[in-house]
Protein 1
Amino acid sequence: MRVLMSAYACQPGLGSEHYVGHHWVKQAARRHEVIVLTDARNRDAIGRHDYGRNVRFEFVEGLSSEIRGGRQFRDWRGREWLGYYRFLLKSYVRARDLLRKPGFDVSHVVTWANFRWPNLLALLPRPSILGPVGGGDEYPTGFERSLYERARSASIRLSRIDPVLRLTLRRTSVILAANANTARALPASVLSRVRIAHAGIDVGEFDAWRREERVGPFQIMWVGLLIPRKGLDLLLEAVARVHECLGEGFRVVVFGDGPEGPRLRAQAEALGVWQHIDWRGWVSREDVLRGYRQTDALFFTSLRETMPMTVLEGMLAGLPVVCLGHTGQGEMITRESGIPIRAGGRGEVVDDLASALRDLAGSPDLRRSLGDKARRRATELYGWNSCGDAMDGLYREVVSTRGKGSDDAARETGTVV
């Protein structure tokens, strides 16, 4: 079978969307010929990696040099969105050419993983798969939302009546929602084509790990961009409530940086917990993986996420993970494998984070039990090979339904959420 895959973000060695795009390409190539439409900026990184003889890349210019350098597009996010729309349009034109030579049996859009972008490949006369995608996640109701978050919530609701989006979703054979929030956000008219699915993680990176009991004061880690959505300020407030009982040696190791960095550092000083925070800034992926070995627990305080890879990494590293029981991370962590915190109001969340700090600091046995079960859960449910096997079955399923009426095909390939 020949698969046309759209992976705007696809760079080996990077995290987030690039990590997902890279691994979906590798999984599809295990059994099929794969033609990958990807952004031209990925060319050099892809050229340094051996994807094997089953993979052919088609580089499409999305964020052009004119857009990148234009003064009229100061906001980086606005530039990237414009670049992605350009990529979608040019990819559609390229895909039409590929229909003739060499041709393909099914198209699959994997990144960007957001259902609110129109899947133009679904307009071509071939079965099409979208996802797993997010885009339906929102802040917990008890938290104040920025202007951006309010606009984003409005866009989720407006997407249900976007005519272009509705058209492409109706033409998509199967829509894979990465979590239940996204499934519920999709237009009711396409729910018969929706399934819950997720991306995976490279279990092999952690196969050789054998965690040993740490010697020394209790230490936790936090990984992410320093932006409001990631919620590091919640953890700083929690640390301020309990740091005296955790001892002078207690440390929070923060991997990451961002525009909120100066404000968060000032907050740590104002709360009197500066001496407990180890600000590492931007580091390599290898440094983060090494950090998992040198800590006792992972605290993940983001207010909304589709499927955070940081949580999966912490689970595979055998760490107890503390996170909000909300959106994607809330579906990944159970009470047997971590500490999911109820996404109530701000004060309640801070109280529960402080309680989790005390409980984990005081009980190595609890840390070991939660960490062992977290590793087992991540290995069994989230390995990339398992995800690839399931996707291979889906490819064969949607191709076999080609030629049937669209309603009949939807009934065979979809599950009502």
Note: The chain has two domains: 2-200+383-408, 204-382.
Protein 2
Amino acid sequence: MARRVCSHLAMHSKVEEEFYREAETIPELHGRIDTSLREHRSLEELTRAIRGLDDGDALNEQMLALQQAVEQHVREEERSVFPAVLKAVSKHRMRELGANLRATKEKLTPTGERHK
């Protein structure tokens, strides 16, 4: 289960970073995008550590740390990134972004998991 969580988180990060390319054009978000990318690197470090662990207390502790880091990352995005993007980007462009993000996710999703 831990490996699956880590794989899905890695895929989500890649899709989100596609979104960040658009968000980088919004002046209010320049510093926030850099922070989000640093947070992604920290999450990647945690997932690498988790993948190297067997079941047990160490794995549970790392999974808890990952959960807390993801929750904090999401809170920050919901407070600062998403509202600024919604304010600055047209509805038409948001639909295009959504389509692009779905296409990226589809490319990254293993064939056997696409319909789950």
Note: The chain has a mean pLDDT of 86.
Protein 3
Amino acid sequence: MEKNTEQDYQAIRNDVNQLRSDIASLLKTAQSSGKENFQQTHEEVVEKLKHSSGKVSQQAHEVSDQIEQKYQEKPLIFMIGAFLIGLLLGRVLNNK
């Protein structure tokens, strides 16, 4: 299950990076095309953003569901993990 969660997380990161690249490319195209094509390009950016954000949101929900399922299967392990992370953060913040 950890590999699926990690793969889903990487897929989300890849989608976000692709979205950034697409937006940058579309904005460069808009600048070179002039004001006439800017509205059309703007609409394309908005549409891609909606599509990508929906996809990322869906993947985030799937990862969240997987984590929740793992928590329900082994709640003690998650509580111990949260406690240890709290201890580590406390140590790091107290040392500064």
Note: The two ends are 36 Å apart (CA to CA).
